[in-house]
Amino acid sequence: MGPEWVAIIALVALFVAGTLLPINMGALAYVAAWLVGMFALNLDEKEILAGVSADLILTLIGVTYLFAIARNNGTVDLIVSSAVRAVGGRVALIPWVMFGVTALLTAMGAASPAACAIIGPVALGFAGRYKINPLMMGMFVVHGAQGGGFSPISIYGTITNSVMVDNGLPASEMTVFLTSLVVNLIMAGILFFALGGRSLMSMRLDPDEAASAAAGVPGELNEGGVTVPARGYGTVAPTGTKPGIRTEQVLTLAAFVIVAAIALFFDKNIGFASITAATVLAALSPSQHKDAIRQIAWPTVLLVAGVSTYATILNTAGSPEFVGGWAAGLGVAAVGALILCYVGAVVSAFASSTALLPIIIPIAVPLIAEGGISAAMFVAALAISSTIVDVSPFSTNGALMLANRPESITEERYYKQILGYSVVVVLVGPLLVWATMVLPGW
After folding, report:
1. Of 98, 273, 283, 352, whose CA is between 20 and 30 Å from 17?
2. pTM of this structure
């Protein structure tokens, strides 16, 4: 049995074990990476550990540390209340605002994980306080990032278009961009109505209540004329505390702006920027933030570190290329295209979409050349299939949503919700994308 098959079988085994047993899948992935790496690929431990994404791990640690401090000093509550004022208290608009802002950031060139790291914690803060389904809110952020992620000036768009040109395919920047945006909008719409969005339409938050939320006082929702407390995290302000912006909140807001600017406009690592900002804020108020380090999402860090390590083993074994080459060799081009869409989805659910796109698009060239398939629509289908699965808790974006869950839901429950949704997306998404974009032969 070749190493590519060993790596695939081990992947299935660790996924099944991680689903059935109460064991962090990151730990299982480390075990699988060690065994497959040493005995199937003849790698030493240093080569196996070289697959750990230090950039991703630092991003998770830095961002969750910074937002732990922001939660402690009430800055997240302040952002939430201000945004509620901006939408006139219309709770149903909040998820769409988060989708639009995240899409705008990635369309302007922000890395998808950076945009999710900036918007995700704020969006999930809304979910916790105003009784919005956390799964819907978190997935809105991820789908927003992917919806804008293929603009001609974005990272995904630049990679996809350059790979097409390098392989002699006609570049179709707007086709790939608009199809990705439409698909992610449709998925967001389905989530909105499936996860309680219709009930949010009747909810209004009194904008005056948002001001008191800045001081930690729970706001109120109006549901069909009945006012009820808005449940979520946050501390109740001591008696006599008046709503207002404190100096530490101003400094934290400034830190957010600086971190975002460093990541988006200067193309620096958001993990370094976040942990630097968090350290400075902690140094300014050491007694208040001495326990913030404990709020870093350490189980999520283990999960992503282990899975990213195994993803490198999978690529080293040549498993994606093996399956892709087999698909390209099939006699029916449309069937080969469907298989490649699934390969992109499954691999990307555990690995980097950015790293996968330059690998899987060239594999599709023979199908495009010999099967009479539209290059623009097939590449768009591959690109979408390989990125909509970033909702997975094993990917950077999904892991960021898991790491910043509201306290109103346990980590285990939220993990299972995200995992369940990502399984549906992996199983159904590529098929629907293929059926609407490749099969008709546009």
Report:
1. 352
2. 0.69
